[in-house]
Amino acid sequence: MDGFDQMSVGQVFSLAIRDVRGVVARALSSARGAGHDYVGQTRAAAAAVVAVRPDLSFVQALDAVSRLRDRGEP
Fold first, then answer.
1. What are the angstrom distances between the C-alpha of 11 and each of 23, 28, 34, 39, 45?
2. What is the CA 65 to chain-centroid distance, rounded?
3. In a domain, 27, yes or no
4. Within a domain: residue 1?
5. Alpha-carbon span 58 to 49, nearest angstrom
6. Please, which residues have CB within 8 angstroms of residue 65's CB and are 6 or more apart in sequence?
7. Could you tell me if residue 8 is left (phi over 0), alpha (psi between -120 and 50 degrees) or otherwise beta?
8. Radius of gyration in angstroms for the set of CA atoms belonging to the chain, rounded to a whole number
């Protein structure tokens, strides 16, 4: 268990995003520059998040990046 099973989705999102906004922004920009579509950009950003936050699963990172994008960030 990684401890996230006891947290709400919102709590995991807040924790996950707090320290990776810059990573997400750079990954999205790079993927956009490489010609990836919205889904490809989101997946690339999630992979970047997992690279710097291995305590998060890819699904958790993907959810966090999607929520950030839905909020207009970064």
1. 20, 23, 32, 24, 20
2. 3
3. yes
4. no
5. 8
6. 24, 42, 45, 46, 49
7. beta
8. 12
